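Running co-folding for arginine.
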Amino acid sequence: MWGGRFAEGPSAIMREINASIPFDKNLWQQDIEASRAHVAMLGACGIVTSEDAETILGGLGTVAGEYERDGVPEDWDLEDIHMTTESRLAELIGPVAGRLHTARSRNDQVATDFRLWVRDTIDQTDAALEQLQCALVERADEHSASIMPGFTHLQTAQPVTLGHHLMAYFEMIRRDRSRFHDARARLNQCPLGSAALAGTGFPIDREMTAQALGFDAPTANSLDAVSDRDFAMEYLTAAAQCSLHLSRLAEEFVIWASQPFGFVKLPDTLSTGSSIMPQKKNPDAAELVRGHAGRIVGCSTALMVTMKGLPLAYSKDMQDDKPPVFEAANLLGLSIAAMTGMVADCTFVTERMRQAAELGYATATDLADWLVREAGIPFREAHHITGAAVKLAEKNGVALDQLSLDELKAIDARIDERVFAALSVDASVASRASLGGTAPEQVRKQVALARDYLGQRA
Ligand code: ARG
């Protein structure tokens, strides 16, 4: 393609280090789509004749059909998807294929293709995240009043409802979707027509190509347009953050599925066995979601470090932008699907959760709050009195509400029998009805609002 000024061809190592076709063949659909828009514009502007434009469009259709059927051939001599397609086009329609690259460079071409690819991926990610949210809302609704221990420091803190816990993840995913949405809005400008870096002398119509490709507008500055990869980094940082949320959820499943917890039975379809220990059912999918988060964060770091310190405009370092994005997109897609299946199909062992909530003195704060409310004791003092009650219960090996009234009165005479109503886990969660709190009525409100947001009112 550029042999004119060279006396010798590239060495084997040059061919290998230079070839991006092994990975950028992923862009073939976007590459054909952008070429179609470009040549239609060249025809409409009279830069190529309409017959030539038609011939090229027909040829591109044939190449697309071949790729669809047989895959994209990988010839390192042709470097990348852009040259691979152009060379096949030339084999099919002859020298007229050479007119396609008028007023265009691979620099604006790859920037355009890659934006289109990331845009499609964001749309797919958003749809997948919506499915995960639907699964979370369904299970949260089912378990709006199921009691489990809430933790801080992974120590039993206060009883919460399982629905409340699941809706916390719904909120994280809501923010993830909003980040992808923001990234998409900024991404949606068309670099095509920026050419190599400085624009072109041909009378092109950039509005026309931008519109044909579904962009909001052409990019404003050609130097920026060919050297900007913010859209890819924004996608990756949003993906990284999303993967962290999935990883935290996965970690909950790993803990909950362990025998000492026994809060959840994982679906067989998302677990594996052990080759030596017949009793085992391992949470591999959840563990891999947790592991993948590390790789996705790595992809995001990789591209940022690649971009750091690049002068304007295009440098070949930027060819390395694609592998981390492709890898992250693949890993994130798998992670979302795995967690959606896990949430939808797991069995929550609500009796175990309830027992655990009852065991860990989870209603100690309720006792302290009762002392403040009913006996007018300052909170710090109430905290101290409650600590003594917990100590006694622990010594006797009983739950707080299993201490006798006499035992409680011996700790503080201001306690009376009404306290027992506040010490059950049900009373505890029901009392936390502040906005966004764990009470079943609040969870049902959150679920209803979530359904409005999802546009799927029950
Ligand atoms: N394969 C290249 C990439 O992905 C296309 C752009 C090549 N541009 C150039 N000036 N060599 O970045």
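Result summary
The longest strand covers residues 155-161.
Residues 246 and 289 are 7 Å apart (CA to CA).
Job closed.
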